[in-house]
Amino acid sequence: MNKHKHADLIHAWADGAEIQFKGAEGWFYAHNPTWHGDTEYRIKPEDPKWLENIPKHGVLCWVCDVNESPNSDHSIAIIISSALKTNQGAYWHYATPLTNEEIKQFLRGE
Asked: What tens digit of pLDDT does each residue of 11-64 get?
């Protein structure tokens, strides 16, 4: 008998892992996965370390709802919470802090 396509993920989910499925707008939490063969699933990746200690004034980030690795091709926002909430009340799916060099370029208007 062939192993189910998602067998390893099903076992991880049964052991308590958080499972996500890929939709048109990115990855979403699967509350009760249905394990369809044509759906892509994964174990939720760990949150990046920078989310653990966001300073009171926030972190300047590239933000996006579709690309898991936002960069200078995307919008910029100040993230103030680990839920990826901005100082203007919006929420984003993905955020990447600007590097020191990117912050300098941003401040210079480049």
From this structure: 999 999 999 998 887 788 888 999 998 999 999 888 888 888 888 889 999 988
Longest dimension (CA), the chain: 63
At CB < 8 A and 24+ separation, what contacts does 99-105 make?
A: 102/72, 103/60
pTM over 0.90: no
Q: Are the beta carbons of 62 and 96 closer than 8 angstroms?
A: yes
Task: Give 74-91 pLDDT, tens digit per residue.
Answer: 888 888 888 888 777 788
